[in-house]
Amino acid sequence: MVNVSLRQLLEAGVHFGHQTRRWNPKMKRYIYGQKNGIHIIDLQATARGLIDACRFLASVTAQGRSVLFVGTKRAAREIVQEEASRSSMFYVNNRWLGGTLTNFQTVKRSIEHLRALERMHEEGRFEVLSKKEALELTRTISKMEKSLGGIKNMRALPGALFIIDPKKEYIAIREANRLDIPVVALVDTNCDPDGIDYVIPGNDDAIKSIRLFTAAIADACAEGAQTGRADADNVVAPTDSPDVEVVQRVVPSQGALADASASAGLNFDEDEED
């Protein structure tokens, strides 16, 4: 059971959108009004979106599929890593590598290369190299871990994506759409909701808001996975996914890289601004 109250939504500042001049008209149906030049998000729509998203993701993990959490903006990075790890899901929190989904086989080869380097390091094989070679490989591991660490154990494409800030993560959404992978997203008033299957309208900049939604999504994923394991253990027919509710009704006022990686354009050195 995932519980989110009106008080929690308000205290997290979920209802605060962007300046009215920065809005995307496609978000009009999720906006309650405006105050002091800031759009106010309809928290009734937020509540409905969160409920639908949690139910859907619980059903995904109940089937044994994974959910990939994506949030590379500075305010989301630590939260995404913590909550995805807590729910045994995967994450991208540094920079989305083009082709992560659409060129997944090549990405898997890059992951195997990373694993091989890590094994070499653990076995002490770096010690027989020159200091310069060992340092270069250590730096390579660090760079690749930063980009691939959150999906290092992802053996297959995810069953769904959870996105924070679709405007920033548009490449991830585009790849998911091409592969018919459902997308759940926390969507602010300056974003385009097209291409998102489950829209959760809300503040995607405030840390409290990001944490609130990411934790709720992680809880739903964990509960769905637990339900799936219980069903398998009991050898019974699949049941409905765990119910999700909002406790209080929300009112409207609310250098050593693999050749394959290089050929695919996977650049572990490039940084992006938030």
CATH class of the largest domain: Alpha Beta
Helix and strand run: HEEEHEHEHHEHEEHH
For the CA atoms, what is the radius of gyration?
A: 20 Å
Give the rounded overall mean pLDDT.
Answer: 88
Largest sheet: 5 strands, parallel
Total beta-strand segments: 8
- Which strand-content bin applies to the residues? 5-15%
How many domains? The number is 2
Structural class: alpha/beta
- Which blocks of ≥5 consecutive residues have pLDDT under 50? 241-265
CATH topology-level fold name of the largest domain: Rossmann fold
User: Between the first and last Cα atoms, what is the distance in angstroms?
Assistant: 34 Å
Overall 3D geometry? globular
Number of helices: 8
Looking at the overall shape, the CATH architecture of the largest domain is 3-Layer(aba) Sandwich
